[in-house]
Amino acid sequence: MLTIVFVIAAYLLGSISFAVITSKLFGLADPRTYGSGNPGATNVLRSGKKAAAALTLFGDAAKGWLAVFLAIQFGLADVQIALIALAVFLGHVFPVFLKFKGGKGVATALGVLLAFSGWLGLATLATWLLVALVFRLSSLSALVAAVGAPIYAVLLGLPREWVLASAIMSLLLVWRHKSNIQNLLAGKEAKIGKRSEVK
After folding, report:
1. Neighbours of 31 (CB within 10 A)
2. What is the pLDDT of residues 71-109, one digit of tens each?
3. What is the DSSP string of 70-91?
């Protein structure tokens, strides 16, 4: 019963869209109406408000971290923690509050990985930053980091349930970036920080 309560709570926490909330606080247009239409930090950055994008990134990562951190503190089993990790991630990607049309889950996944292991989160973040600095492409950075995350989890000797959860999140992240992959192959993907016309 405790597992079910935690999973539901994690999903609802994940469903909170900091991109939408932050945009309202800063008086910006709904992030679903411009750029990629994705309610996430990268798209909020296209509004030109770096502070709003940073707050969105922090909020989305924090909710992923919090759900898993609390599960660990309550002494739940590895498989239960993995289920809660997936629940908060799926809440962000398929949020009940936004008619199941959410973000791609990069920041929330990072928060989950940081809660699993600080080293895992830092290795994944370092991968994202390195690719972003070289290519200035957020989607490419996310894809490379997503592929690396479960590999890092294995190398760090984390519980197999956590490794599996990391792999599932990575697969979903790649799937959520399918349009970005098409743009990358066509050379049409927007660079990080490029402003979009806001409707």
Report:
1. 30
2. 999 999 999 999 999 999 999 999 999 999 999 999 999
3. HHHHTT--HHHHHHHHHHHHHH
